[in-house]
Design goal:
There is one protein chain. The protein is an alpha+beta fold. It has one domain: OB fold (Dihydrolipoamide Acetyltransferase, E2P) (Beta Barrel), CATH 2.40.50.200. Helices cover 28% and strands 34% of the residues. A 5-stranded mixed β-barrel has the order 2-3-4-6-5. A hairpin with a 6-residue loop joins β2 and β3.
């Protein structure tokens, strides 16, 4: 009886370790030649990175609740970069939130006028289920820095 209990306990422990290290791939396979660029480096000077192909890594801190068309990756220092993919081409499930991930794609800057930026913020509020605050529009420049994702590897459930 005691041996059976120990075997079951060991099996459960091994199963949970395997589940925690599962890797799920979305989109294209990641390249072997790209090194990780810290998210802070990109968001602190986006002009230097615009149009460049990069690899970033972090914790999935948000997932699109409507079409699964984006994830936010946060670094250990809480810098965040959205990884946006084409709607219905790659779909991220909600259970990737909280997992570690590595993503590759092109850094893009979307410059907008005030009305366009306000519409974008309203859209994001709807996707995240939060109330839109017009005061959040702020002052120019109105821009969004994100990664146009082509591939992402999620480590976890």
């Amino acid at each position: 009886m005691r041996t059976t209990f120990m075997i079951l306990t060991l099996t459960a422990a091994v199963t949970s370790v395997c589940a925690a290290t599962e890797i799920r791939n979305f989109g294209e396979p990641l390249c072997d030649y790209l090194e990780v660029t810290p998210i802070e480096t990109i968001v602190s000077d986006p002009e230097a990175w615009a149009g460049r192909e990069v690899r970033i890594a972090g914790r999935v801190s948000g997932v699109c609740t409507r079409k699964g068309c984006w994830v936010d990756l946060a670094s250990a220092e809480d810098a965040t970069l959205r990884v946006k993919v084409d709607d219905d081409v790659i779909v991220f499930p909600q259970d990737v939130e909280g997992c570690e991930a590595v993503a590759e794609g092109e850094v893009e800057i979307l410059d907008m006028d005030r009305d366009g930026y306000e519409a974008w913020l309203r859209h994001v509020a709807q996707e995240t289920g939060t109330e839109f605050d017009p005061a959040s529009v702020g002052e120019p420049p109105y821009r969004v820095v994100r990664l146009r994702g082509r591939g992402i590897e999620v480590h976890g459930p």
